[in-house]
Amino acid sequence: PPQGELIPPQVFLSIAEETGLIIPIGVTCLRQVCETVGQWKRKFASARDLSVNFNLSHRQFIDPLFWDLLSTALGENDFPPGDFQVEITENVLLDQDRSLWLQIEKLLRIGVKLALDDFGTGYSSLSYLHDLPLNSLKIDRSFTLDLKDNPRHQTIVQSILRLALDLDLYAVVEGIEDRRQLDAVREAGARFGQGYFYAPALTAGEFQEGLRTGLRFPQ
């Protein structure tokens, strides 16, 4: 049992997924996110175009009640559906039964966006890019770590970026933790990135203070 130490997400999330606790955890997070960001959008001019990415596991994605809860939470908080993006990994797509596509149809009806996370790992089937109504791809951090010194990774990242551009998808490179990695990502042609170099995880209070005073990120 925990003794006050930090437990990394890759540990507790897998347990929550196995036990089914991921469902109530996700519902609580969803309601809090929609309420908090909805308030920010109404209060701060700098937050009016703020968007949210929300990660879903396989169990959450195929839960028939989730999409009704999402639609309700967005409506109750005047949260534009187009500013809400669901992130899934390729593992969610392995079991391509009818329930999966029913949930995708619900997603489209609500008007939220869909992102494919950790692209380039796992099975990375190009058919996903054809079949899914994607808005963006997130290139896995494993390619970022040594991008400056690994020609193979440079070629792969550049190819994914070109593919995303041709398909009119946003491409976000994950795992940018220092200036050197940011420079390598830019040299590869990326326009969007994510990682600790921009900011560590922030509490809602810290982020709200940033909205009030003006958020500043490395250029």
UniProtKB/TrEMBL annotation:
<dbReference type="InterPro" id="IPR050706">
    <property type="entry name" value="Cyclic-di-GMP_PDE-like"/>
</dbReference>
<protein>
    <submittedName>
        <fullName>Response regulator receiver modulated diguanylate cyclase/phosphodiesterase with PAS/PAC sensor(S)</fullName>
    </submittedName>
</protein>
<dbReference type="InterPro" id="IPR001633">
    <property type="entry name" value="EAL_dom"/>
</dbReference>
<dbReference type="GO" id="GO:0071111">
    <property type="term" value="F:cyclic-guanylate-specific phosphodiesterase activity"/>
</dbReference>
<feature type="domain" description="EAL">
    <location>
        <begin position="1"/>
        <end position="215"/>
    </location>
</feature>
<dbReference type="InterPro" id="IPR035919">
    <property type="entry name" value="EAL_sf"/>
</dbReference>
<dbReference type="Pfam" id="PF00563">
    <property type="entry name" value="EAL"/>
</dbReference>
